[in-house]
Amino acid sequence: MMENHKYAVVDIETTGHSSTSGDRIIQLAIVFIENSKIVDTFSTFINPEKPIPFFIQDLTKIKDVDVAHAPLFETIGSKVLDLLQDHIFVAHNIHFDLPFLQKELKRVGLPKLVCKTMDTVEFTKLMFPNLYSYKLQDIATELHIPLNVAHRADDDALATAYLLLKCIEQLQSLPLKTIELLHKRSFQLKSNLSILFFDVLANKRKKYDAADYPMYRGIPLKEVEKEQPASQISITFPRTKELKTTLFQKGLNHFEERQGQFAFMDEIQNALEKRTETVCEAETGIGKTLGYLLPAVIFGMGHQKPVIISTYTTHLIDQLVLEEIPKLNDILGLPIRVAKLKGMQHYIDLYRFWQHVQLDDESYDETFTIMQILVWLTITDEGDLTELNVSGGGQLFVDKIRKTSLSKILEEREIDFYERALRKSEKCDILVTNHAMIMADREREKKLLSHGCATIIDEAHQVIHASMSRKERIFSYTTWKYVLGQFGTLDTDQLLSKLAVLHIPLALRIRLEKQYVDVVESFDQAISSITHIIPSIKGHSKSTKRMSTLEDLRLNPSSFRAVATAMQTYILSAKSILATYAKNKLDDQATVLLNEWEYWIRELEIKVSEWDEIFLLDEAVEAKWLEIDTRSIPGSLTIIKRPLNYQKDIKEAVDPLRASGAVIWTSGTLTVPSNRHFITSQLGLSTTIPIHQYRAAADYYNGAELLIMEDMPDIKQVSQSDYIEAVAEAIVQTVLVTEGRCFVLFTSQDMLRKTVEIIQDTNLLEDYMLFAQGMTSGSRMRLLKSFQRFSKSVLFGTNSFWEGVDVPGDALSVIIMVRLPFSSPDDPLYKKRAELLSVNGQNPFTAYSLPEAVLRFRQGFGRLIRSSNDKGVFIVLDRRIETKSYGSDFLQAIPNIPIKKVTLENMVLELENWYTNEG
């Protein structure tokens, strides 16, 4: 039984990653667990007989002096071996600690440690499949596990021991049926967790009380929360300042009235009542979200219909639902009925998942992801797959179980998450969705957002990006090859050969093989017609990246038509199998295979549609360009098509919402000083729609100042490498004096990469976590969350990084803007826009390039100060802000704060004074 197991939780700190290359252990710690309790600990420094590298000293805070008089591993090795005997060896990433220890034991002539193992990384990923990160520090924060000093073996081992106990506790809390399903697959895990699964299962069966879990065909789900009835209490909008103040003071601790917030509320209320359209620019510091939520909730409750609130990212949706609306519950003293609605593909298709659970898995990744989902289904309310944190291989499995069509009639008590979300969206006071849903709704037969009584569009400027993303088409060579590779020929282990279990006539399979070979050959020929032109495309002499518009390449369309024709022929034959065999009664294996076949045909149809749009159809207002890295041809080939006529798209999407009631567009940045209608005209809004601006109080920005570096070299006067060195030096000096919490904004991914590489080579910021867009793996939100977790961290991003990204103030103390955020003149999108503006007699620089850059500048500054207590410095390394006439446009776009021109040396002194006087 579980009580008999003894665990030794181990952590080591070392001089580097490779024992065979001479690296040594400098600290070792063991925490002993018996009967689910910590019973003993052992910890010691170890003399590595060599200097500890500086970056390891910075990371672990273990200095040479700490280990100078510590024992050698030879002295304590046999004791460590004795301590670990007869225990299950546990570590956080066991593939580092155990092999390293084994090599050290071998080096000093001791026998190999023979033991069972458990990896808390593997265990935590299974038990908490929705954590954003599985680094020990991040897990400790998320699960409230004490971890005093990270990267110290004693503290890390103790935190890992607590984590093991927390994972066991979570396993014990799962439904019996879930544990049975997990145990069945646990033998395929990389560590010996199956021992634990068996013990917990045996114990659970002994004291099992038939808990009534909601089930889907034998798979337990989380208990469904009962729908809240509509509030019977009538509440009216507080029209006077006194009534608003009283209401807010009653519900919020330490409420302070914010300048502009009440006026903003009144404008929202006025638009809701009069069913009008309005634009409200509410600067950071106004309290925008609560400002529109209060009138929206009262209006929705009064009309017994939802007010639709749309924002840009999943993160902002969660922020609204988890942070802002609960505040409103407290203010109004009423339960607010809230629903979230995203596109169908965000939700799990339980039937497809159940089918996969019946079969043998194809790989470790698939086994592991199925186990993660089994646990996740017992904790998820929404069934939204974006909650899951799965590996790259796991993501391929997740894509197979996405919802793609409405269910047939559900059996009694069966649950469908998407249809549950639809039902909930019809009976709520506030319906939170995203811009992509609004853009997609116009094409749905049954409109999902037609039952609202008003619409508030937050982060309104991002509707432009939502429209562009929706109509954007991307051809990726590797993705195409991957999709085509799923079908294969009869002599491969791919889908076509597997179809033998359906007893499909050989003649049909041979025909499919021939048609498949035609597809692959015509595809390769078409790609070849592109790649042989690549050497003639100009690029930077030292860069391997190449970019060209498609019209400059003058491609012959006939070879691209041949691909489309071959694909359509193949798809028709492939679909005939579905039509014939879907009617037959098949066993589970055959059913899953047929579903898999259907899934990949659907993917192929999507690809053909993209192929047609990119290579065979031309719209007047669009940009099409090719990107490739000459080190990987054709593997890196990507072709992007982005239409620019999004006003019509936006109008058609928003018109049905206009018919339902008020439409309110709001954001922190909707105007630039030189062009009030710059954004609203791109949204297709009439100039007759009023734009209301709400500014924060003057003292809100008391904690901010702007520094302009006046001794930066002029980029046109020096080589790129000299300029990048100067940028790297300025960043390093800034980070060292401010101790991190720094965001560095570039206009070029190439310059970002080279700057980060220089900084990494110097090791001067070895003590800091560096997160870089395009270099550090993970989505923008994952990078941002990682950045927020560490006080000593630096985030490097390009213009695109913070479009739709919000950084809470306490996570940021400095923004360094390397170059004013103009689009590159080589950017195909900018080129096309400039061409269209010139044709219409406008100056592309003043009509588009400058206001776009000023808007980005405003948005960048807006990330710095998020509350009146924040302190932050905005550093501009680009001297054009003072040497060019348009520099004043940037400075006028931000609040009136102190602006200082400084040298690098004086900037360091200025920052030291700034942060010394903090508070």
TrEMBL record:
Residues 730-881 form the Helicase C-terminal domain. One of its GO terms (biological process) is DNA replication. A motif (DEAH box) lies at residues 458-461. Its EC number is 3.1.-.-. InterPro entries: ATP-dep_Helicase_C, DinG, DinG/Rad3-like, DnaQ, Helic_SF1/SF2_ATP-bd_DinG/Rad3, Helicase_ATP-bd, Helicase_C-like, P-loop_NTPase. ATP binds at residues 282-289. Residues 247-520 form the Helicase ATP-binding domain. The keyword Protein transport does not apply. Keywords: ATP-binding, Exonuclease, Helicase, Hydrolase, Nuclease, Nucleotide-binding. GO terms for molecular function: 3'-5' exonuclease activity; ATP binding; DNA binding; DNA helicase activity; DNA-directed DNA polymerase activity; hydrolase activity, acting on acid anhydrides, in phosphorus-containing anhydrides. 3'-5' exonuclease. Belongs to the helicase family. DinG subfamily. Type 2 sub-subfamily. This is 3'-5' exonuclease DinG. It comes from Psychrobacillus soli.
